[in-house]
Design goal:
Shape of chain A: globular
Helix content of chain B: 25-40%
Distance between the termini of chain A: 22 Å
Radius of gyration of chain B: 23 Å
CATH architecture of the largest domain in chain A: Alpha-Beta Complex
Strand content of chain A: 25-35%
Helix content of chain A: 10-25%
GO molecular function (chain A): heme binding; molybdenum ion binding; molybdopterin cofactor binding; sulfite oxidase activity
Number of helices of chain A: 7
Pfam families (chain A): Mo-co_dimer (PF03404), Oxidored_molyb (PF00174)
Order of helices and strands of chain B: EHEHHHHEEHEHH
Number of strands of chain A: 24
Structural class of chain B: mainly alpha
Oligomer: heterodimer
CATH superfamily of the largest domain in chain A: Oxidoreductase, molybdopterin-binding domain
Number of domains of chain A: 3
Cofactor (chain A): Mo-molybdopterin
Protein name (chain A): Sulfur dehydrogenase subunit SoxC
Strand content of chain B: 5-15%
Shape of chain B: extended
Number of helices of chain B: 8
Strand order of the largest sheet of chain B: 2-3
CATH topology of the largest domain in chain A: Sulfite Oxidase, Chain A, domain 2
Structural class of chain A: mainly beta
Radius of gyration of chain A: 24 Å
Number of strands of chain B: 5
Keywords (chain A): Metal-binding, Molybdenum, Oxidoreductase
């Protein structure tokens, strides 16, 4: 135990909540034996006798109220207002890989707009044979594809460049979601506009922009546009949520979330990049010498232990413990995740819940027998290119501390003897 | 390019429709409409439409973006990145102001107002004098101080080989010390939504915000 137990930060609060939830469970090694019969078993409970809700009670359901902490959270001091701002997916409380849309993070530059299908128009113009207008109904008549991909904000973990700052995986790594998208390949739509007159495609670009006031215009090289970019209108089986671009967004597999233009309204084929605000002033990465990288599109391999973590402390005492987390890479599939409980001195290969899918989240598990001593928990992702997730010091050595974006460093959680966890940096 | 058949959906876009939506401006000036505006006209428009957030001299109010200042700070511990100190192209300023500003009332500025406001932002960054008039004719003559400050993503050369070495699995280091703790800062929001941040943190962290 440390003096931190007197602090009333999120970790302490989460810890207390967890401890209460654990109730009178007997902690300790070995098989527990109850002293008295459990009244939850020996007494007939209301739910085993009375009636539950009818099937007409909830035409479209929300999670049960006991899960009310599994919600998006905002960090007020990050941005000047909540309109051009960010919130965070509660990854500390989720499992598997698919992010429920209702708590999947949001990032807007002029707020989440309401655009109905009837009012929706998509324009393709520029260096094409015939500039085109499509309605939403038109889009649903094109051949369709389904793919699962992660969308990670370029700024995910960006507040952690200079040190350990926010205490929770939701805040340090929650600018991410992973959904199954249904839509039309951008290649199909560009073909419809015709590119006979476009000429050599290898030096061409598309500029994509949204219908909102910010527009969020970004330039994408043609080889990516024709490779795996999707114009999506369904996510996780249903229409996109308003805040995720309803009715149509761009899906740019493996690339920084900013380029996943929402409320997509226009695609222009060009012979060069626009160098818009979102690819000059923003989403450029300043290095220690003051020069900046531009067009840092791909999100490199990354992982994080989601539990235990500051918002998901150990409440059951020593014994069997499931260490779990997420790994992903914009370069392809995750092939392996290593976990360390001693701050990176020694590593054990974790178990992937399923074979890694390209540019999608992977879930990993490492089951251990926790002896109740302190741990410095880390995870380290490997992707199919052979890239191994670096430490923060390795990244800072090359980039300095001011690149804001693309922080894919190894995260450390200090798990204390009482089961609380804290975001720390280690030597 | 003729690798697939057309399906026959959609319709041809009309010139008026393309003109309404295709307003992007590129570094070489492509897309700039004819027009002009002076620093003096820009100051008037800026005070009316922009200064409430960006300050009378484009220096920024509170957490709102600074549009001027910060020259020579890009290699500092806390760089101040503005149109003058950071932005490589003037086209971006014109394009962004015209399409997405003022915040909350975008696409309300005329072409001439946009030239004038852009001229005033240049003046606020000491890049032109107070007699300056910006137009589509002289647009490319303006030199942006950080035009050469950007390199194309070089991670494939500078990082990927280094980070693709076989990973150490055992006895990788002798000791491990905790060097930094988030709980010491204590800026994480609490569950009741109360702002846990202190004023000092707002200042120091505004630059590393989500955007």
């Amino acid at each position: 135990m440390t003096a931190d137990n007197d602090k009333k930060g999120a970790s302490r609060r989460a810890f207390l909540k967890g401890a209460v939830a654990a109730g009178s469970a007997v902690a300790g090694a070995g098989m527990a034996r109850a002293a008295e019969p459990d009244p939850l078993i020996t007494e007939v409970q209301e739910w085993a006798s009375g009636l539950g809700e009818g099937v007409d009670a909830t035409p479209y359901g929300l999670p049960i109220r006991f899960e009310s902490d599994v919600v998006r959270r905002n960090v007020e001091w990050l941005t000047a207002d909540t309109i051009s701002s960010i919130n965070f997916t509660p990854i500390h409380a989720l499992d598997g890989t698919i992010t429920p849309q209702g708590c999947a993070f949001e990032r807007h530059h002029s707020g989440a707009i309401e655009l109905k299908k009837e009012d929706y128009r998509l324009m393709i113009n520029g260096l094409v044979d015939k500039p085109m207008i499509f309605t939403y109904a038109d889009l649903e008549r094109f051949p369709r594809e389904n793919h699962v991909y992660f969308c990670e904000c370029a700024a995910n973990t960006g507040m952690e460049w200079a040190g350990a700052q926010l205490n929770g995986a939701q805040f340090t790594h929650g600018m991410i979601h992973n959904m199954e998208y249904s839509g039309v390949s951008l290649r199909t739509l560009l073909t419809e506009a015709g590119m006979e007159t476009t000429g050599d495609l290898s030096d061409k670009w598309v500029y994509v922009e949204g219908a909102d006031a910010s527009s969020n215009g970004r330039s994408i090289p043609m080889d990516k546009a024709l490779d795996d970019v999707l114009v999506a209108f369904k996510a996780n089986g249903e229409a996109l949520r308003k805040e995720h671009g309803y009715p149509v967004r761009l899906v740019v597999p493996g690339w920084e979330g900013n380029m996943w233009v929402k409320w997509l309204r226009r695609i222009e084929v060009m012979d060069g990049p626009v160098e818009s605000r979102e690819e000059t002033s923003k989403y450029t990465d300043t290095l220690a010498d003051g020069t900046s990288r531009k067009w840092t599109w791909v999100m490199d391999a990354k992982s994080v232990v989601t539990s235990p973590s500051p918002q998901s402390p150990i409440t059951h005492g020593p014994g069997p413990l499931v260490i779990t987390g997420l790994a992903w890479s914009g370069h392809g599939a995750i092939t392996r995740v290593d976990v360390s409980i001693d701050g990176g001195k020694n590593w054990t290969q974790a178990r992937l819940a399923a074979e890694g899918q390209t540019k999608a989240l992977s879930r990993f598990y490492l089951e251990i027998d926790w002896d109740g001593s302190e741990m410095l928990l880390q995870s380290r992702a490997h992707d199919e290119t052979g890239y191994v997730q670096p430490t923060k010091d390795q990244l800072r050595e090359i980039r300095g501390e001011n690149s804001i974006y693309h922080n894919n460093c190894i995260q450390t959680w200090w798990v204390k003897e009482n089961g609380e966890a804290e975001n720390v940096e280690v030597s | 390019a003729a690798d697939a058949k057309r399906i026959g959906l959609g319709r041809e876009a009309l010139p008026e429709e393309i003109a309404a939506w295709n307003v992007d401006v590129r570094p070489d000036g492509t897309g700039l409409p004819p027009g002009s505006g002076s620093v003096a006209e820009g100051e008037e428009a800026f005070i009316a439409y922009c200064a409430v957030c960006h300050g009378d001299f484009a220096e920024g109010v509170g957490n709102w973006p600074k549009l001027a200042g910060g020259d020579g700070t890009l290699a500092d511990k806390d760089p101040v990145k503005t149109v003058g100190s950071y932005w490589p192209y003037l086209s971006t300023a014109w394009d962004y102001v015209h399409r997405s500003m003022p915040f909350g009332a975008a696409q309300t500025l005329t072409v001439d107002e946009t030239y004038a406001i852009t001229a005033y932002i240049l003046y606020s960054n000491f890049l032109v004098d107070d007699e300056f008039v910006l137009s589509n004719e002289n647009f490319l003559e303006v030199e942006m101080p950080n035009a050469d400050g950007f390199i194309v993503d070089d991670r494939a050369e500078t990082e990927y080989p280094l980070f693709s070495e076989p990973a150490c699995m055992e006895n990788c280091k002798e000791s491990v010390e905790i060097t930094m703790r988030a709980a010491v800062l204590d800026v994480t929001p609490e569950d009741d939504g109360a702002a846990a941040a202190e004023e000092a943190m707002k200042e120091t962290n505004a630059d590393t915000a989500a955007d």
